[in-house]
Amino acid sequence: MDQGAVAVGPALAAVLVVLVLVAVATVRAGRLGHARGIATAALRAVVQLCAVALLITAVLRSWWASTGFITLMILVAAATSARRVSSLRLGWPVLAPIAAGALPACALVVASGTVPLTEVAVVPIAGILIGGAMTATSLAGRRALDELRDRHGEYEAALALGFVPRDAALEICRPSAGQALVPALDQTRTVGLVTLPGAFVGVLLGGGTPVQAGAAQLLVLVALLAVEAIAVAVTVELVANGLLRRPGPAVQVPLRRLTAWPGRNPKAGWSSDAS
């Protein structure tokens, strides 16, 4: 067996079961409210990774299949983020920040020749960047909408002071949504000191030199910073313009759509989406 490979067998299955049980028991004891989510997420991960393991050879055999797989990753990421931020019906605009962050960065990396133009290189990089954009979008969207809901009075006060709705919303939600970048920042700051992330270890296991592994990991981390920054910025704009919102009057974000000409009273000609 390869010295760097995980041993697949009953011991692995037992360890995974124990870890899931520990996580479920902990959130139940702490009343954190995600016990079922942990169990279902672990089960889905097993099923999905088994399916990918069976399909990956076919996926990496042609550019058509690889492109289709990348498209599927974007759609699944958007659906996941939409449910986290709002609902699948109202949250579909999250597709914009995910695509706007991941696709240009992936294209730049490939076009520069930094990553070989091969399916086996492009698909994993695309997956990492799409995953980062999804996480940043979910965190930024949830934080922004929560902040606008909880600070409704401040939003209305800003309108009374003459702010247009977009600017009033940005004043409230932008600082909080920006906190979605903290995980990426911390990971980049502590790489090599606290963690040895997947790209680094993967290159080493694939026979690359430590220098190549470090370069690959640096590329991924810096690309993720750019991807997540774009995703957060676009998400905040979607929220501030009322394009990304939540269902139901109880949690409706107090944003309004412009139907008046610029220069009129900020409150005149604005129709609330809360009704």
What does this structure look like?
The longest helix has 32 residues, at 119-150. Helix 1 runs antiparallel to helix 2, helix 7 (165-177) runs antiparallel to helix 10 (210-240) and helix 9 (198-205) runs antiparallel to helix 10 (210-240). The chain is built from 10 helices and 2 strands; from the N terminus they run H-H-H-H-H-H-H-H-H-H-E-E. Strands 1-2 form a two-stranded antiparallel ribbon. The model is unreliable at 250-275 (pLDDT under 50). The chain is mainly alpha-helical and 275 residues long. The chain has helices spanning 10-29, 35-59, 63-85, 95-111, 119-150, 152-160, 165-177, 182-190, 198-205, 210-240, and strands spanning 256-258, 270-272. It is 68% helix and 2% strand.
